[in-house]
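[step 3/7] inverse_fold.run input=structure_tokens len=259
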């Protein structure tokens, strides 16, 4: 796997995501005014059109009244759902861009959150501070995901829950990357982990097996890790082929972990 120094990796990741908050690209929002209601609605429609299962994994409305920390708020789409569901919302992100977009989004809909731009490998919160920590597709971009997970456990209250998603290495997405960037380039010796680190989003992106996810969360009392097939796995492949692949070949590993 691609390995960079912690400083360089964090700065490269920050620069990558500071260009635009995740899910806010021109193909999604078109020419509408940035930070307008229509701009945000297009982002939300696109996100939940591709990933409708976020609602069944997060179960936003079942956590009313809880104190929430979201790690990696992105464009604030999920953060808005937590606010709408009546949670006491707090959020952190590596980039100032995400903080500004999320703050603008919540304000537009009449909500607020304590939002901070920080590196989540060191969270500025006391032990046992939150009922719920949420992070969807973010922690695998960190140089040291295990440090973030240790921090998650520290700031969770006893019996508090982490809900989130990490990328799955034994997936059609990773396999397609390997075919394109390893096999077709005469480098079949390159591993799935290496091509994900080099060619999936920001530098050093990681992807896991279910067993590795369980090992990451081994200090929690109860962990479920469920792999989901996604539209990204099915992209550019015939439907008959993807229907033959079980969910364990999917790109998303959804996690519920109780402290």
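[step 3/7] decode complete -> sequence:
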């Amino acid at each position: 796997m691609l390995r960079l120094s912690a400083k360089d990796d964090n700065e490269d990741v920050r620069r990558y995501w500071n260009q635009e908050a995740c899910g806010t690209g021109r193909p999604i929002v078109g020419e509408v005014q940035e930070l307008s209601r229509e701009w945000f609605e297009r982002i939300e429609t696109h996100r939940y059109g591709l990933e409708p299962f976020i609602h069944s994994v997060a179960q936003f409305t079942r956590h009313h009244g809880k104190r929430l920390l979201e790690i990696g708020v992105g464009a604030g789409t999920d953060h808005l759902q937590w606010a709408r569901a009546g949670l006491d919302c707090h959020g952190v992100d590596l980039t100032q861009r995400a903080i500004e977009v999320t703050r603008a989004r919540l304000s537009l809909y009449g909500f607020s959150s304590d939002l901070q731009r920080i590196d989540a490998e060191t969270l500025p919160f006391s032990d046992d501070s939150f009922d719920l920590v949420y992070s969807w597709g973010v922690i695998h971009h960190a140089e040291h995901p295990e440090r973030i997970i240790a921090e998650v456990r520290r700031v969770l209250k006893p019996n508090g829950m982490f809900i989130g998603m990490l990328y799955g290495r034994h997936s059609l997405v990773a396999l397609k990357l390997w075919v394109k960037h390893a096999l077709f380039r005469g480098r079949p010796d390159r591993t799935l982990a290496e091509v994900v680190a080099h060619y999936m989003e920001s530098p050093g992106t990681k992807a896991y097996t279910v067993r590795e996810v369980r090992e990451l969360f081994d200090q929690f009392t109860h962990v479920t890790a469920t792999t989901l097939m996604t539209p990204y796995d099915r992209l550019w492949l015939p439907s008959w082929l993807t229907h033959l692949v079980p969910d364990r070949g999917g790109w998303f590993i959804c996690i519920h972990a109780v402290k």
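[step 4/7] annotate
The longest helix spans residues 37-50.
The two ends are 30 Å apart (CA to CA).
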